[in-house]
Amino acid sequence: MLGLMQDQPLLISNLIDFAERHHADGEIVSRRVEGDLHRYTWADVAKRSRQVAHALDGLKLEFSDRVATLAWNGYRHLELYFGVSGTGRVLHTLNPRLHPDQVVWIANHAEDKVLCFDMTFLPIIQAVHARCPMIQTYVALCDADKLPADSGIPNLVSYEAWIAGKSSDYAWPQFDENSASSMCYTSGTTGNPKAALYSHRSTVLHAYAAALPDVMCISARDSILPVVPMFHVNAWGIPYSAALTGAKLVFPGPAMDGKSVYELMETERVTYSAGVPTVWQMMLAHMKANNLKFSTMRRTVIGGSACPPAMIRAFNDDYGVEVLHAWGMTEMSPLGTLCTLKNKQLVLPADAQMQIRLKQGRAIFGVDMKVVDEAGAELPWDGKSSGDLLVKGPWVIAEYFKGEGGNPLINGWFPTGDVATIDADGFLQITDRSKDVIKSGGEWISSIEIENIAMAHPAVMMAACVGMPHPKWDERPIIAVVKRPGAQVTREELLQFFEGKTAKWQIPDDVVFVDAIPLGATGKMQKMKLREQLKDYKLPS
Ligand code: AMP
Fold first, then answer.
1. What string of DSSP letters covers 368-413?
2. Per-residue pLDDT tens for 481-524?
């Protein structure tokens, strides 16, 4: 017997319809490429995304055709989120930090038909358009009078001219909720990039789950500034969850430096934010140097790579901001776990609570996870047994776009490539990326643990731990360190700092001071590049 409930597909267009009906005057504030602040409402987003829908129909695109963006976090990008997917086309968010050759490869692989870009990225478009024969139309996200006369780009139109005069009435089509809605290529460090192809169903379910109190806890009372870019896994789904809840959105546009983001947070009474650790590093440095405090900021999600305990403590103790440590992947839309305490843990002493909050957190309903040994046998949830982390659920990929790389699943589970433990309360702790684990004398050393200790030293701005070949131990860890501006610390002082904080044999053999640690297109440390840079390095004998 089937249930007797209405059969309505879960579609992204429902989210924007809802925001318009129930949060019409909810604000969306954007720092524009032009430098000014743009301010309008959810009702305006809805109206203009329907104009986008007409403009796309005018290009005679087919259902599921890809429409790419190369854009900052901003209101026009938001309109494309709803306008493109709402019509059944696939929003392909390109990462502007990639090398132009990679942009060409990805745009051709995705078979993008339209590319919408912020004017900041005009030089990239000029460098790639001749090699992207499938792109029929380029849309510059600007007013008509900002369009350069001699760009050399064929079929270039300004966004405002493109949607101007289009009707704001549009009946969103109804279709199978499993239809593709958007796609994002992984920041894979080896081989060609592969794309996660999200569906309307996976996106709407993820939007529901992300808003839950024990997850991102997003509500109509929040003013959210996503620092995480809309070109990286849909800004962790925040635009969708914001529409679902009616939260205010504040977009920093191209001004991503600590000072600009801080000022926007203050003027727009931001309560909530999200981003990778490296961006918060800049923000905290700016705030410390200028003796600043937050007036309204209360919570921030930090994920994408391990959040150093020193950062969680600084936010908490110095600024009264709760850090929600999160773990996820492009292949998981991206949320997998989020760290919030359980009722029974609230009575624990502050230190014990902090120990829990340093972990990557508990699985969200919708994500099932397990750790397995080399033979694939499930390991106990004891907080000690470390193994390969596998996940499954309705917003985890079943395969990559175009079947690239074959079937990625192992008996229905997606192997994350991360090594982790899970404790008896279900809290996940990521030890490493499997390819970054350091093996010394047959034992594993967690590079994340070593980095976390180094980052707690006041003179250390950033630290990356990598294994170096060793004749006796196979590999030994060394730590590459970027010092805070003006700070002084010696190799010996830093090595001494590890004493008593980890087992003696896990203490790095050496400290290498560097000017910068290579960061990838999504702000994560690129250890492969670092290893390349250190290829002539010799361990001290
Ligand atoms: P991406 O798909 O580019 O977002 O990268 C996903 C990978 O980032 C994961 O498989 C992890 O290796 C890493 N990652 C994400 N969040 C965390 C976290 N909180 N702690 C440690 N690693 C993380």
1. EEEEE-TTSPBPPSSS---EEEEEESTTS-SS-GGGTTS---BTTB
2. 999 988 999 999 999 999 988 888 899 999 999 999 998 887 88
Tokens read off for 466: 């990598």
Lowest mean pLDDT among 38-52, 74-88, 142-156, 513-527: 513-527
Query: Is the Cβ atom of 430 under 6 angstroms away from ligand 1?
Result: yes
The pLDDT assigned to 292 comes to 97
322 CA distance to ligand 1 middle (Å): 20
CB 163 within 8 Å of CB 140: no
pLDDT of 392 above 80: yes
SS3 275: strand
416 pocket-lining for ligand 1 (C-beta < 6 Å): yes
Q: Please, which pLDDT band fits residue 190 given cuts at 50, 70 and 90?
A: low
Say how far apart CA 419 and CA 56 lie, in whole Å.
Answer: 43
| Angstrom distance (rounded) from CA 482 to CA 460 | 6
Domain boundaries, the chain: 9-200, 436-533
From CA 72, how far away is CA 252, in angstroms rounded? 8
522 lines ligand 1 (CB under 6 A): yes
pLDDT band of 149, cuts 50, 70, 90: confident
Q: Are 221 and 250 in contact (CB under 8 A)?
A: no
- Give the relative orientation of helices 238-245 and 200-211 as an angle to the nearest 10 degrees: 70
Radius of gyration for the alpha carbons in the chain, expressed in angstroms and rounded: 23
Query: What is the best residue among 369, 430, 435, 437 to mutate for testing ligand 1's pocket, by most ligand atoms within 8 Å of CB?
Result: 430
Q: Which residue in this structure is represented by tokens 């005679």?
A: 60
- Residue 98, pLDDT above cutoff 90: no
* Residue pLDDT, tens place only, 32-49: 999 999 999 999 999 999
CATH of domain 436-533: 3.30.300.30
Question: What tokens were used for 312?
Answer: 């969680």
pLDDT for 398:
98
Please tell me the distance from the alpha carbon of residue 253 to that of residue 357, in angstroms, as a whole number. Answer: 31
Residues in the chain: 541
* pLDDT tens per residue across span 112-146: 999 999 999 999 999 999 999 999 999 999 999 99
Pick the CATH number of 9-200 from 3.40.50.12780, 1.10.1040.10, 3.40.50.2000, 2.40.30.160: 3.40.50.12780
Question: Ligand 1 center to residue 330 CA distance, Å?
Answer: 9
Q: Which residues are catalytic?
A: 186, 331, 439, 444
Cβ-contact 537, 529 below 8 angstroms: no
